[in-house]
Amino acid sequence: MVLTCDFLVTYSLGVTDDDRVFKALADPTRRFLLDRLFERDGRTLTELESELEMTRFGVMKHLRVLEDAGLVVARRSGREKLHFLNPVPIRLIHDRWIDKYTERRVSALADLKTELEEETA
Amino acid sequence: MSTITEQKQATQVYRVFIKATPQAVWDAITKPEWTERYGYGGTVEYEMRKGGSYRHLPGADMVKAGEEHGFPIPDVIIDGEVLEADPPKRLVHTWHFMMAPDLADDAVGTVTYELEELEGGVTRLTLIHELKGAPATALMVSSDEDPNRGGGGWAWVLSDLKTLLETGKRLSD
Questions:
Q1: What pLDDT digit, counting tens, does each position of A1-60 carry?
Q2: Beta carbons of A81 and A70 less than 8 angstroms apart
Q3: Domain boundaries, chain B
Q4: Using CA atoms, how far apart are residues B32 and B44, in angstroms rounded to an integer?
Q5: Quick check: A40 and B9 CB within 8 A?
Q6: pLDDT tens for residues B129-148?
Q7: Distance (Å, rounded) from C-alpha B163 to C-alpha B40?
Q8: Residue B153 to residue B131: CA distance in whole angstroms
Q9: Which one in A7, A41, A46, B160 has a CA-CA gap of 20 to 30 Å to B68?
Q10: CB contact set of B53 (below 8 Å; sequence gap of 6+)
Q11: Nearest CA distance, B104 vs chain A (angstrom)
Q12: What is the four-CA torsion angle of A106, A112, A115, A118, rounded to 10 degrees?
């Protein structure tokens, strides 16, 4: 519930989904946590903590930023809280930012090819 | 202990925030006139009660593409049984992919949709796919390959759903 409230606060301030994702990714510890979850999903805080030279509190803080960005989803399973990697925000960024620029590069190369072929013809 | 570990590894979670009401998101998931407009298309049929049937039928374009490439598309792509239905909040059904023979050895999975209404007309949609004993299916639905080459998976389907509800257009438009 606390997370939901936090989410609403940032949402209403006009911070976009993209801002939160980029901010979350701009930290080596958080990227490390994402990589660990990519290797194996559904880990507990204790498991993630054991791979970092950092206090439990520190890891919790980083996980919180990742959750706010939607990159990590925490779910209860019995008495445990499991952390899952959520690939949807990265997919959305990919579609919004990466595709656009790679397409342009590809079409620029295609144009160049046509031009060069015309020259030699 | 080992079964718990296996369960953990066999669960995939996808979450997306959509600027739309839970009812609109629910309709987009459960109504055929919506499902044919995003993701892999096709139409769904739900008997919206516990024990009711769930079927995902291929769209005309998918059948045509299948014919062109020489592999027949079955009449039902995904088959399942509704385990829980609480519109527009929660839907749980089994999920059996019928189209790929290489998935035949996989166990039948379960898909759960959770829709939560947040302030500001935002719905938080969480999809949980339980894939215990279904490693090939797990690989398929988590694919990050190009959707035009058969990849995409849940992340792409949900991104497309979000784009459609928020803009009226598809990702590829």
A1: 444 444 444 444 445 678 899 999 999 999 999 999 988 889 999 999 999 999 999 999
A2: no
A3: 2-167
A4: 5
A5: yes
A6: 999 999 888 888 987 676 66
A7: 14
A8: 14
A9: B160
A10: B45, B46, B47, B79, B80, B81, B82
A11: 24
A12: -80
Q: Which two tokens stand for residue A97?
A: 């930012």
- Shortest distance, CA A31 to any CA of chain B (angstroms): 18
Are B118 and A92 an interchain contact pair (Cβ–Cβ within 8 Å)?
no
- Residues A75, A43 contacting (CB under 8 angstroms): no
- Per CATH, domain A2-86 is 1.10.3290.10: no
**What does CATH list as the number for B2-167?**
3.30.530.20
Calpha distance B133→B109 (Å, rounded): 8
Tokens 């590809």 — which residue? Answer: A106
Measuring CA to CA, which residue among A69, A93, A88 is closest to residue B15? A88
Other C-beta atoms lying within 10 Å of the C-beta of residue B158: 25
- Name the pTM for this structure: 0.80
Q: Which residues of A touch B11 (CB under 8 A)?
A: 41-42, 82, 84
CA distance B30 to B85: 11
Nearest Cβ partner for A95 among B126, B142, B159 = B159
In one-letter notation, the amino acid at residue B97 is F
